[in-house]
Design goal:
Elements lengths: L4 E6 L2 H12 L4 E4 L2 E6 L2 E7 L20 E5 L3 H8 L4 E8 L4 E7 L5 E7 L2 H8 L2
Parallel strand pairs: 1-4, 5-8
Antiparallel strand pairs: 2-3, 3-4, 6-7, 7-8
Amino acid sequence: MKFASVRLIAADLAAVVSFYETITKQTAEWLAPVFAEIVMPGAVIAIGGVETVALFKEGSAEPATNRTAILEFQVEDIDAEFSRLKDLVEVVQHPQTMPWGNRAAQFRDPEGTLVSLYTPVTEAAKRRFESR
């Protein structure tokens, strides 16, 4: 099995796509007026408008209701990324070193999903990510 993507359902599709383009420095590919993807090494961020929910089961997903999942992106330098993003997107947490060895900062996308950018900083954390 291969983990392929995370799909977000957005009420304001353009704002959410723009946020992830800003965070990732990647341009989204619009596959339909109600669906875009940002293809990155390892996975895809798929973003669908609320209209796409009806293609599955009406009411099976709702925009702006996520309070459990955190989308995480490993970056080369979290402090540089934080400086680049802090005035562009909503900041939740300034960079800090976590007990498991990553230095991380958190942001919220326009519909409330928590996004974490991190850099492994301890030797143990760096080793953990060498094989991934």
